[in-house]
Amino acid sequence: MSGALVRIVAMALKELAVVLRDRRVMTTLVASPVIQLVLFGLATTLEVKNVSLGLVNRDTGVASEQFLAAVGATRNVGEVIVYPNEKALGEAIEQREVLGGVILPPDLSARVARGEGGEIGLLLDGRRVNAAQIVTAYLSEIAATTGLALRPGAAGPDLVVRNWYNPNLDYSWFTLPGMIAVITTVLVLSVSVQAIAREREFGTYDQLMALPMRHWEILLGKAVPAFLVGLFNGSFYVAMVALLSDVPFLGSYPLIVLAIAAFSLAVSSIGLAISSVAGNQQQAFLGGFLVIVPMILLSGYASPIDGMPGWLQPIAAVDPLSHLLAVCHGVFLKAMPAAMILDHIWPMLLVAAVALALGHTLLRGRSN
Amino acid sequence: MTARPDEGFAAMLDDGAPLQPSALAEAFPLRLDQPDQPAIAAIGLTRRYGDFIAAQDISFSVRPGEIFGLLGPNGAGKSTTFRMLCGLATPSAGRGTVAGRDLSVARAEARQALGYMPQKFSLYGDLTVAANLKFVAGAYGLTGSAQGTAIERVVAALGLGPYLESAAGLLPLGVKQRLALGAAVLHTPPVLFLDEPTSGVDPLVRREFWHHINAIAARGTAVLVTTHFMDEAENCDRVLVINRSQTIAQGTPDELRRSIPGGEIAPSLGAAFFSLIDTQRRVLEGAAA
């Protein structure tokens, strides 16, 4: 073994021993991510289920009857509360008793019967933008189907929708694979960001600097524990979601593990670059926080990258999380081919190289 | 080899048992073939922090097998000088060499040639004694059986056996210092840097330390030691006195005693030390007036 390799291995083993000796670290690394994966995977859904709606019904005809029956049958709407007038409904929305209300005018059934097309009023709580939009979509669809049922042939062209890769648009098919990537990011960053800051805080940095280790050897050795944590946990979550949830796993396990490896390397390097300038663990933690929030927001996990302003999109493209997310969704839901996965792997490796070079410069700069 | 007064102060507290020959030193190769090649050289070392000069134009050299003391009050500049020579601080001017390697161009090679024992315990408190020694050995490039032999040697010589699986941070101070010394000599370096190695330990441990240090130096390793214990300074072959960032005297303890103004011989190194500092103060005040 060459000298450099011996020193890197010594550093890696020491770092692993430090990380594994700390019991709190083990809890953070193994127990909490499993809980997070289950909790967040199920909780972070944009589906609107069991919302309460208000109703002001002035129509007693067949149209309102059919419409309300259809509303009652959908699992998205839980309770329909009847109010005497618009004012009472308005107060209920104000008090957040209901998300919104449906107002059925007195001439609804009559107009539908005459073929004029009825009008249904919908009052929504704009403070809850997302839920309001989604409920609007549900109710429009119900109104359209009801109208069609009452007067066949009156409607325009039929829209036949097929959702590829996720036929029922099951939200957990989107969130669970994404959650794997997000939790891996948090873990790898929280381990790597402490690596050098811990030495500075505990006063062991001087001893380290007096040893014949080059800065790059220190960085590589210190990247190992965070890298292994990411690789191990990421691969473990993929197996867990694939085996225990109903999300289909259509792609290749080795390929997704390869992508997780590249990703862990990139995030470890980012964490080490932050750690290179941090004077203590508190600063390192704050620095990590400063990076992790934009990383998640720009990744496309919460909102699609296509919806971001043009100048932000290139930043999203260098976010390693956006690449791992694409691979996770691709491998789970549609057997993403190897060539496409490689297209996501090399940008992550590039980020790793740039971050390591930056960390090296910063570490050397601070040592003088 | 000249006899060193390593019994001196400790003999009175001693249990009387003679010390065994240092097993720690025996592993060191004999390095006395080039006595004129300086093992450590400081050439005009200067360190400025903004307007403040922490060390100004410090020059000296240490031969193989020599124990060289940096003596001075706290904040005088001896730590800064020491740190520049083991590569922990970059000089603003001047340069330093360790075992013939220039610290500014071959920093890693110079570090490979030196063993460093910091004043404050700086190994990993969460790790066991064994894990700490393994790490340092690996950092010095020792692997496999060479690593095992080196670790066994310092563990046996310094009595660390019972503590091998204990967390280093929880050890008593004397054991921590022995571990720090052990870590510094795992790779039997030609140059040893000891920053106040015996501050805070009892006289018996001090006596044991100096026993090892003397024996290691006798093999041809150059030792640079900072101290503010006068009796320890007496143990050095030569001493450099630093105060207010400047060298105020340099020589053997004997020469220092003779160097005080007035042509007298100071009764002790301590008396000489205070006289030298006082002279510098008067000269500086005279210059300012």
Tell me about this structure:
The complex is a heterodimer of chains A (368) and B (289). Chain A is mainly alpha-helical. Chain A has two domains: 3-44 and 171-367, no CATH class; 51-150, abc type-2 transporter like fold, CATH 3.40.1710. In chain A, 68% of the residues lie in helices and 6% in strands. Chain A is built from 15 helices and four strands. Chain A has helices spanning 3-21, 23-43, 62-73, 86-94, 108-114, 129-150, 171-192, 195-202, 205-210, 215-244, 253-277, 281-297, 313-318, 320-334, 338-367, and strands at 51-57, 77-82, 100-104, 121-124. Chain A has a four-stranded mixed beta sheet, with helices on both faces. Chain A is elongated and about 90 Å long. Chain A starts with a helix and ends with a helix. In chain A, 41% of the residues are buried. With 289 residues, chain B is an alpha/beta fold. Chain B contains ten helices and ten strands. In chain B, the strands form two sheets. In chain B, strands 6-7-8-3-9-10 form a six-stranded mixed beta sheet, sandwiched between helices. A four-stranded antiparallel beta sheet of chain B has the order 2-1-4-5. In chain B, a hairpin with a 2-residue loop joins strand 1 and strand 2 (52-62). In chain B, helix 4 packs parallel to helix 6 (173-185). Chain B is globular and about 65 Å long. The chains are: A mainly alpha (368), B alpha/beta (289). Chain A binds chain B through residues 1, 3, 6-7, 9-11, 13-14, 17-18, 21-22, 202-204, 206-207, 209-214, 368, and chain B through 86-88, 90, 108-109, 111-112, 114, 116, 118, 120, 122-127, 131, 134-143, 193.
